[in-house]
Structure formats: structure tokens, C-alpha cells
Specification:
17 helices, 3 domains, Udp-n-acetylmuramoylalanyl-d-glutamate--2,6- Diaminopimelate Ligase, Chain: A, domain 1, UDP-N-acetylmuramoyl-L-alanine:D-glutamate ligase, 10-stranded mixed β-sheet, Protein-Tyrosine Phosphatase, Chain A, peptidoglycan synthesis, about 425 residues
């Protein structure tokens, strides 16, 4: 297989999509539930790919198109082989909530001093991680690799590919329970990162305020900590949440002025501290760290503040699970605003306790005395017995809002991506 790895070094890049293929690329034919990349290998070569890797013998000619037993395994082994040719820090980031935002913040901070490769978007799975690693070149000083998981063993699989030298788990909550089977399996999977860093004799960063993470730390691993306690290597304090986050922080050799960010949410405070902790470890100047955090503006429906013709909208509709919904509602309750309302969408992939988690969200919103409405079939099924305003779909919610449009409100949109709450921006 190592001979085939050398094909990669004769190519400009790796591609798995003939629609986006470039001249001299190495095309790797992957298969999915509804597609077979082997069928497109010939087209890839015709479009300019130099070589193609397939796992269907009938399309291999062993001149430009080469057969392997499993194309996905080839991709992963190639990425691991390539990564191991670089003696640089590789920082792995995982967690139930906040991993993408934390990755973006860490990258923003480290870019102030280093040439950094980092995961684009949320390409954080068994395909995205190797594709990111294959972009490593001699100009890079370090890499930041986001790692997602939806079932037991996923993080171990990704750490076996990436061989991280540094790692952080942002938090552990309830998400993708359907795939994991239990909350215990979520903890077991996420902390596979800790085991990998220990085996690689690396460095861990962790939230000193989080007892779950603290109790799972391996004893022999060097650590750097962040949190609100004075004992943390980086300690911080929230100054304001109206609605943008402002805070200050200090380390053993730096005390910051107020950091006035363009990001919403108390829950993002720890993501900021994580980026500071990692930046400080890699000796980025404190003022440069602050500059990076102040300049950072969220995107992709994550903690975004959108001003419309009628309202101000907090758009946080990329993902939702019981932990992130609780944080979002509690944060929203703390924001001082004369008129505010929430629109909460269904939380997906929660398994057999789905109704209970949604009921808890309803009860929390009532306990916080928040006004709002709910969207999705799960919330709608609980509407009558809980006396809430709920709609089966975003379309139905839009129809209602067109007849009762709120004005001069601060509006929180929070729900799973599949619910499509971002469509409500059109009318709000």
C-alpha cells in the first residue's frame, strides 16, 4: 500500500468529488448509502485527475486507476502516513457542544503567531479528518483538528488517524444519544481523546470548573487549565451579556482589559477561555489573543446576531441537544431586554427519552418565565397537555408569524438543523 501512497505526492490534492476536482488531483472513490464513487473514476481522470483509487476491480486499469480493497481505509491510512511525516503539534478538539466555535477561536488566536492548518466548517468525521490532514504541507507550523462523534469508538478511530499531540474536550452533554445508546457511552467516547493524548505523551487542556472532565483526566498527562477559579492557569470573569459577551481574564504573566466580543452567550465564555489557554500555552502574546477574540465573528447559524427590519435575532439553529438548549435558554433569560421571545425547535437524535428531554425544555422555559413558541412534531405532540404554542413545522410557524409579527423584539432561534429555524429570519 505504501507504493500507492506515493501517488499522492505526485498529485496536487486529494478529491472525493468529481464535481469539484482539479487538475492533477488524486481521486479517491468512496461509497455511501446512495452513491458509489467507483462509477465516477473514469470521469475524474477525464476531468484532469492524475490518478484514481477505487475498490471495484472492474474499473481499475493499474495505469491511472488503481485497485485497493477498501477506498475509505486507504484514505484514512494515507492521511495517517502523511500526518506522521510532520513533527508538529496537532491539536484535537471534541465535545458535545462548542467544538466548532472553539476550533474557530483557537485557530483565530494561533494564526496571530503561526501558520495553522485547521478543519474547515465541521468536516470532523471519518472522512473530513483525513481530508484535512492531507492538506498539511511544510509551511504549516501546527494543525487543529475538530473531531465529531455519533457512536462509541468514533473518537478513537479519529485519534488513530490524526495522532494528536494536544487535546481538549469542550464539555460532555446529551447529544446523538440514539447512536451512543446511553449517556455513559457518550462520556466513554469523548474521553477516548484523553487516552490517546496520554498514549502519545501529549498535553491536555481542560475546564477546571467541569467536574465530569476533571474526574476523567489521566493522572500522568501534563495539563493546562481554564475556568473561573483563581487556581486555573487562565481564569476569567464575565462582565456583560447584553447580548454580546464581554469578559476579562488573567494568567500568571498577563492581566487583560475588558474583551468585548462579537459573540453571544454565557456558554461561549468557556470557549473563549479555552482559546486563551491554548494560545497562552503556545506563547501567543496576550494583546494578540485579545485582538483575535474581538475580531472573531461567528457564522453558519451559530450564536449569530442578526438585525432585521423589525427585530434583533439571535440565530443559534445549527444544532440543539438538551445541554445546549438549557444553556441557550438560561443565557437568554439573563439578557436584559424589554421585549424578547424565543422560538425553540425540536431536538433530534435523542433516542427513547426524546419526549422527556423536550418536556424538560418546556418546563425550563416556563421556570425562567420566558415567552415564546415551539416548532416541530415532538413539541407539537406535547403542546396540548403543557399549554404551549407549538407548530408542526417551520412553514406553519411562518404562516402564524405573518399574521402576528413581533416588532422591536430580541428573538432567540434555537433548534436542530433539521428543523430549519433559520428560514424564520425571512419573516422576522
Amino acid at each position: 500500500m505504501e507504493e500507492l501512497f506515493q501517488l499522492f505526492y505526485a498529485c496536487s490534492e486529494v478529491s472525493t468529488d468529481t464535481r469539484k476536482i482539479s487538475e492533477n488531483a488524486l481521486f479517491i472513490a468512496l461509497k455511501g448509502d446512495n452513491f458509489d464513487g467507483n462509477k465516477y473514476a473514469k470521469a475524474a481522470i477525464e476531468k484532469g485527475a492524475k490518478y484514481a483509487i477505487v475498490d471495484d476491480k472492474t474499473v481499475a486499469d493499474e495505469k491511472t486507476t488503481f485497485y485497493v480493497k477498501d477506498s475509505l481505509i486507504f484514505l484514512q491510512k494515507l492521511a495517517s502516513y502523511h500526518r506522521n511525516s510532520f513533527d508538529i503539534p496537532v491539536i484535537a478538539i471534541t465535545g458535545t457542544n462548542g467544538k466548532t466555535t472553539t476550533k474557530e477561536l483557537v485557530a483565530a488566536v494561533l494564526i496571530k503567531k503561526y501558520n495553522v492548518l485547521f478543519t474547515k466548517g465541521n468536516l470532523n468525521n471519518h472522512i473530513g479528518v483525513p481530508l484535512t490532514l492531507l492538506q498539511l504541507n511544510k509551511e504549516h507550523d501546527m494543525a487543529i483538528i475538530e473531531m465529531g462523534a455519533s457512536k462509541l469508538g468514533d473518537i478513537k478511530e479519529l485519534t488513530d488517524i490524526a495522532h494528536p499531540t494536544h487535546g481538549i474536550i469542550t464539555n460532555i452533554g446529551h447529544a446523538h444519544i440514539e447512536g451512543f445508546g446511553s449517556p455513559e457511552n457518550i462520556i466513554k467516547t469523548k474521553t477516548e481523546l484523553y487516552k490517546a493524548i496520554q498514549e502519545n505523551k501529549g498535553q491536555l487542556f481542560y475546564n477546571a470548573d467541569d467536574d465530569v472532565l476533571k474526574n476523567k483526566l489521566p493522572h500522568s498527562c501534563p495539563t493546562s487549565t481554564y475556568g473561573t477559579t483563581e487556581e486555573a492557569d487562565v481564569s476569567g470573569e464575565i462582565i456583560d451579556l447584553s447580548p454580546m459577551l464581554s469578559f476579562k481574564w488573567k494568567s500568571k504573566d498577563y492581566s487583560s482589559p475588558s474583551v468585548n466580543t462579537q459573540i453571544i452567550g454565557k456558554y461561549n465564555f468557556y470557549n473563549m477561555l479555552a482559546a486563551i489557554c491554548i494560545g497562552s500555552h503556545f506563547e501567543v502574546d496576550g494583546n494578540e489573543i485579545n485582538s483575535a477574540l474581538v475580531e472573531y465573528k461567528p457564522s453558519n447559524n451559530r450564536s449569530q446576531l442578526e438585525k432585521t427590519s423589525y427585530n434583533t435575532v439571535i440565530l443559534d439553529a445549527y444544532n440543539a441537544n438538551p445541554t445546549s438548549v438549557k444553556s441557550a435558554l438560561e443565557n437568554f433569560a439573563e439578557i436584559s431586554s424589554e421585549n424578547k421571545m424565543f422560538v425553540l425547535g425540536d431536538m433530534l437524535e435523542l433516542g427513547e427519552n426524546t419526549n422527556q428531554y423536550h418536556l424538560e425544555a418546556i418546563q425550563l422555559s416556563k421556570g425562567l418565565k420566558l415567552q415564546g413558541m415551539f416548532v416541530g412534531s415532538i413539541f407539537s405532540g406535547l403542546a396540548k397537555e403543557n399549554d404551549i404554542l407549538a407548530f408542526e413545522s417551520t412553514t406553519k410557524a411562518m404562516e402564524f408569524l405573518s399574521t402576528a409579527l413581533p416588532k422591536d423584539n430580541l428573538i432567540l432561534l434555537k433548534g436542530s438543523r433539521g428543523i430549519g429555524l433559520e428560514k424564520l429570519i425571512e419573516i422576522l
